[in-house]
Write a structure and sequence with these properties.
The chain has about 200 residues and is α/β, with parallel strands linked by helices. About 30% of the residues lie in helices and about 25% in strands. The protein has six helices and ten strands. The strands form three sheets. Strands 1-2-10-9-8 form a five-stranded mixed beta sheet. It is globular. It starts with 8 loop residues before the first helix and ends with a helix. The mean pLDDT is about 95.
Length: about 200
Amino acid sequence: FDYGAGNLHSLVKAIETGGAVVHVETDPVLAVRDTDALILPGVGAFAPAAERLAPGREIMAEALLAGLPALGICLGMQLLFDGSDEGPGRGLGVVEGQVTKLHATQVPQIGWNRLEDITDPLLLASGLDVAYYANSFVCRPTAAHLPFVSAWSEHDGDRFPASVRRGNIIGTQFHPEKSSAPGVAFVREFLQFAASLRSAS
């Protein structure tokens, strides 16, 4: 789903390297129709992205909760949550919680950071334990949805979810497509996971 946020070239290349056919869609309803997986890319600001999402928010959320595999990257992960302090607009709300600014003196966080307490099998299979970040905001799940956190990172004393996993929905605060070979391997693991669900159905 392209919400007009910026250059998708590196992400599209990483997905195509994994053997998938990429279709870039600007309509949120069409983005979840006749597809094996939804990718929410990770460039831009929350408010304009939420505005582009708004006409199809309920339909997209229903598709994800019904089992459509999804990968939300950076801003894409933040759009899985209810809302953001960065600006107005509603996210998909498939993970309850709010996006807030990093509680750190060094903002934005740009560069490499470790992943800790990894539980997502796709992350473990890819060997991705150090990832590339470019963010000022992070996701804060409600207590009830903390179990969906599948990896953590820490920046300048602020510990935050590096990834979340709810069913077939995966969010990463980091950029796997910029995280060297293990990051691309993670994207491939996700694509293989999506393909296995297609085959099973």
